[in-house]
């Protein structure tokens, strides 16, 4: 069954595929693409399906309508008052902790994918939207886009990744100001501080450019791309010495002379190199059972 068939019929998301580039779109523009219950089941399932395939080499995340996303849908918060949460205080606290960890894991999946993830933002990217795009590899925005760490206005501490990832992408003082105030910051400010790679006049030109970049990334060795993402994520969370040692260990096991030869041969023959797909990311012991 193709990925298009596996990912058809989602209520909150739309899936498209161009060759080896996957494209996930938030698809509830009438509701400002808020993250409702459907999203929280469909999003991780879609990422796992894409990640399990060895044929996809880049993922673009975008949206429909005027705004990228207004963040968490209120119906999700309303569920906290449901009967399943009416427990003795310590057990309710433990259950809420597991609930937050489950939500976090949905965005953590972007980092664990073996492929580059490019986020393309138009209009507002609010609250949980920033949590999500912080976990992407690259971010692009229209000139009229804006971002808001909205949780402070709801008397909440942001808990799905913004406060952990954004300080590695922007200056600490700026992040603290944005988190403490909840003020909007523009695409231009985001680009100035390095949060956004590039801005575009409109959504159409942004999507053309982002899809072109995704295809360019997809044309390279998927094994080398996987290694780059693994090294960058590891280096962010470890010392330089630890990162270098891990890189040496990685190369000891992953150096691929066959693909190096193919890259050099293709360059001499003035053709595009041909690289094999990664093996599907599926359970090895049970896949034939």
Automatic annotation (TrEMBL):
Q: Does the keyword Hydrolase apply?
A: no
- Which UniProt keywords are given for this protein, alphabetically ordered? Fatty acid metabolism, Isomerase, Lipid metabolism
Concerning InterPro entries, the annotation shows:
ClpP/crotonase-like_dom_sf, Ech1-like, Enoyl-CoA_hydra/iso, Enoyl-CoA_hydra_C
What molecular function does GO assign, one term? Answer: isomerase activity
Q: Which SUPFAM superfamilies does this one have?
A: ClpP/crotonase (SSF52096)
Pfam families this protein is in? ECH_1 (PF00378)
| Protein's UniProt keywords contain Lipid metabolism | yes
GO biological process terms held by the UniProt record: fatty acid beta-oxidation
- Report the pathway entry: Lipid metabolism; fatty acid beta-oxidation
Family the UniProt entry places it in: Belongs to the enoyl-CoA hydratase/isomerase family.
The protein depicted here goes by the name Enoyl-CoA hydratase/isomerase family protein
Q: Which organism is the protein's source?
A: Simiduia agarivorans (strain DSM 21679 / JCM 13881 / BCRC 17597 / SA1)
Tell me the lineage of the source organism.
Bacteria, Pseudomonadati, Pseudomonadota, Gammaproteobacteria, Cellvibrionales
